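Help! Submission page says 'invalid entity' but I think these are all valid:
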Amino acid sequence: MRVNLTVNGRPQEADDVWEGESLLYVLRERLGLPGSKNACEQGECGSCTVRLDGVPVCSCLVAAGQAEGRDVVTVEGLADFARQRDGGGCASGACGGTGLDEAKAWQAGGTDSQTGEGTGLSPIQQAFIDAGAVQCGFCTPGLLVAADEMLERNPTPSDADIREALSGNLCRCTGYEKIMDAVRLAAARQGGAV
Amino acid sequence: MSVPTTPNGTPTKITQGAQTRGGIGESTLRPDGTLKVTGEFAYSSDLWHEDMLWGQILRSTVAHAEIVSIDTSEALALPGVYAVLTYDDLPTEVKHYGLEIQDTPVLAHGKVRHHGEPVAIVAADHPETARRAAAKIKVDYRELPVITDEASATAPDAILVHENRDDHHIGHVPHPNIVHRQPIVRGDVAAARARADVVVTGEYYFGMQDQAFLGPESGLAVPEEDGGVHLYIATQWLHSDLRQIAPVLGLPEDKVRMTLAGVGGAFGGREDLSMQIHACLLALRTGKPVKIVYNRFESFFGHVHRHPARLYYEHGATRDGKLTHVKCRIVLDGGAYASASPAVVGNASSLGVGPYRVDDVEVEAIALYTNNPPCGAMRGFGAVQACFAYEAQMDKVAKELGLDPVEFRQRNAMEQGTLMPTGQPVDSPAPVAELLRRVKAMPMPPERQWESSEGADVRQLPGGLSNTTHGEGVVRGVGYAVGIKNVGFSEGFDDYSTAKVRMEVVGGEPVATVHTAMAEVGQGGVTVHAQIARTELGVAQVTIHPANTEVGSAGSTSASRQTYVTGGAVKNSCELVREKVLELGRRRFGAAHPAWATAELLLEGGKVVTDGGEVLADLVDVLGDDAVEVEAEWRHRPTEPFDLRTGQGNGHVQYSFAAHRAVVEVDTELGLVKVVELACAQDVGKALNPLSVVGQIQGGTTQGLGVAVMEEIVVDPKTAKVRNPSFTDYLIPTILDTPTIPVDVLELADDHAPYGLRGIGEAPTLSSTPAVLAAIRDATGRELNRTPVRPEHLTGTA
């Protein structure tokens, strides 16, 4: 079957999709976007987290056909997504989610696939690097999408809020402390405290 | 908020590079960080090639059986299938592999020895087609009785898991179903026992833990025009893989090219081969690139686990709180194939007494062959199981003596100069008592930490968002533990690493390129290599070359060894490059200034300077159009094997120490545990990158927490089948399960090691588990002789 969807602001068309394929498979294997990760493919680890019409979901549990006509944001588009959100009068982060029309209005920019340079990172991406929240990095894409969405809803989270919001994302390397540091740092920078 | 994690202590004196930014001792950021946060970092499962096929493995559905027949015809007939291979299709006489003992069949032949053993492999044009084809292969099994524990393995009529063993351990093991046995005998335990005022015994069980790295086993094999193959792979040791792969393919090693793909964690689980040979076989058979990616279910069968262990301990002590003797027996279940079992036995035995001064010791450690899942390397490697048991024993003895458990440990703590039970002197700082003092001195988390102005915050209580208590039935406990881990490969292994370092002018700037075959698995070795090159060569720009087999072996990313050994190799090669650069400078500019001949010269900030700070030349001018390059091997001081009868010998390179304090809250009615805080103090010798050091300590601590309260691969004792191969049923700690982990980093230099550093990755995984167990015992008063602890163990309903 053919699936039409918008990914990171760009209309995409995937052909020859099997009925059993997940959104994760289509992103990774058919649309050349392997940033969303395949750690468990059963909705337990959160490494494949993407925004589907603004809502964070495990893309491994979404059948590709369910994404027909909908908007997807992956880690590859996160920086542009955040920039667009901030430019849209939502610098405080308290904008209560990104609407469908807003999401459709922007496009992800190009990056240097060798070094990643030329990428303006989103605050949460930069905070993950600065705080040492990245080790092997396999959980990182899903955590970034989830953390970014939480900060959009709740710009001043308590530690317990952060833990609750990220409890669907497994990390095996860091013991989560540096991830907590990164989210606190991003929240503080967003609030102008740092 | 956590306690500040600023390193303290006195670092080694450094002259070269002290003025250069981004060198050792700074928390520089990961060079791969940007790629990893943008989703552009290419992990092994992300690789893609035009015309690529997907490989799939058919695994045994039973643990122990003869294979009567295999019928692949239906699978081959499925459209989209390019190849179906079984044992009969293997191209050479080499049909087995293994880290130390080549006992693991590439594909099962005549018999399967554990649940999930590879039987056949398929290549197809869609992963689902490959899966369906594998399901159409008919295998007729005739089941055999299963060997699952020491009693069934060593019974007089026990079936041998491996007939006709000819490995180098068979001569000294008491039964062919025992892989290796290592006794350690020192002093006179009988005489010491007679002096003891108290003698405490205990029997403990440590459950099977999974590494549960998040990036599944995966790789891409691309056939090459010369008949060879290029494998892009997530592994811990490229050259070890290469040595095992090439003979099975019937190719010389130079026709099997290996490049490290992005690795999503390892923790020991990638020491053994997984899909490497299978992908290469399918690629060579079909002439097309073949990618294999395990899903999580298969990953639980696709790598070895941490050995489950039964441990029997006896400790004696005098009234004044001094240990008289320790006697122990450690039985590790190695499962169906040897993997790293012999070395795990060596660690369990030699480190089985812990970081204590004990003159009279009798230790015996064995690893069994059974039909359980194969076990091998996991972070902490044999030292973890022992630490869980000896630390439980230390608490029991302290209680018997009426002593504070920390005080009792400190009275018996080893120090520099103490002899190990192997007779090896500990010849670098061993601040065991000091680490305990530090971890005990950390501020305690507030009582009733779950209380907020709006009432109880259930997220901070046992049971969490299940909302099972608002504080009723909840009691707090505190526990301590300390451990000792060896660093580097032991027992006489030639544990070297290789580094190629190049210096040249690029874009008007001096640039160093560091090329090693080190597997970056997340630990941050690439960060540290760049720091070392900056320090040793006084440059700002360092390029880390992708790891591959075009350079010599770096050894394994295991045993807390890479910063020590490959870091040491990078340092050494940089020093050799520096000498050559200075020689070049002397040739070109020596006549212009006498200091070229007389002064000690350093490279700082892209310039050649005297130790007095005078600038002699710019590196750009010294190098000109020349590139200076050195590839060299580097070795730490040698070790020796343990005597097979007495266990005596200088078997280890270096020791690493960490201590933990756990604070837990237990809902005693439901048996639910909330770890409130898990504080750690560790001696790291020298923190080359303090941010990464603390990250390693916190990560290791959390894996220890996992096996204390939730992680266990459950194997059915009747069928030897794995019952929980998924993240739904095998639980690892989430961010809600994980507490604040304050870290106190001590830096006491080991003069034998580069920069005085100490390998750090594993020690925190040891003491974390027994500290949590001690805290739960403190809270509940229950004995708790097994880990992980489950609710039924705390409610008396087990």
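Support: the input was valid. A stray whitespace character was the problem, and the output above is from the cleaned input. The two ends of chain B are 37 Å apart (CA to CA).
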